[in-house]
Amino acid sequence: AKAEGGNGMHFFNPELAAAAERRRQLENDLRMAIREEQFVLFFQPIVDLLESRISGAEVLIRWNHPQRGLVSPNEFIPLAEDTGLIIDIGLWALEASGRQLARWRTEGRELSLSLNVSGRQIPAGLPVEVLRDALYRLGFRSEFLALEITEGVLLDDVEGALNWLTAVRSQGFSIYLDDFGTGYSSLSYLKRFPVDRLKVDRSFVRDIDKDPSDRALVEAIVAMARSLSLEVVAEGVEEAEHVRLLHAMGCRYLQGFYFSPPVPLETFDDIHDQLPDM
Ligand code: C2E
Ligand code: CA
Ligand code: CA
Ligand code: CA
Fold it and tell me: Nearest C-alpha to atom 12 of ligand 1 is from which residue?
């Protein structure tokens, strides 16, 4: 019985092998997707409470897979990061966002976009020269493009990240600190790293109507941001009560399903002139 095929042994595990095979397949598909530009951008409105208008959108990538249809970034961004493919995907997303900003500019619409940037892209995968080149080649204005980074990005290579941030901001691009509050070193990092906006993670926003400590936390973030001259975007706004509370706290920008999920460009173009339902 001892010699029998692998029971309790680690030599061959069919489930692990199948997972590895799926991963290999996904990686091949992803390489193909980059070559054939199978990605699309979705746009989720960001509402400016001060001006009572949609001031722009966060750009969220989708993979239009030939067999599987629209694939969520949660399913392929981690693999793209592991394999380094995120760098080419990121360049494509920059190009597509820049083209859209240039289009709006010729139409006389003042809309800004914010683009997600992974740690793998900073600093060498998305150098400031590439951003500057996109700017001049496509003809949009840097003040309308923000780059969303998470504070984790800043931990790996503090020096490199700091230089990148400084160079990017000196070209007029904005930096949003994404998923703010989920890291552990937020406060000290805010002092060290030059950023323009904090995006309060939706895990804190979700229960502000029910949980007094979440409410106090968001209130404290807004107050702290104000004292540092930073703007705040609340993510994951799903209910009228969220809007009311965040407005009362003095949070200027809101984003979430209450206003709109991420939508394709045609839909965003239809809604962005409208006053959001508040
Ligand atoms: P994220 O940057 O935190 O993006 C916000 C996510 O929250 C989006 O998921 C959005 O659809 C979702 N969301 C927005 N409002 C609400 C709400 O009210 N309630 C709930 N429950 N969810 C809401 P999505 O589009 O699936 O993106 C997931 C993540 O994938 C993003 O998280 C971001 O980290 C990453 N990602 C998306 N596009 C890109 C990209 O172009 N480049 C990189 N590097 N990462 C990207
Ligand atoms: Ca984001
Ligand atoms: Ca976020
Ligand atoms: Ca609720």
Answer: 236
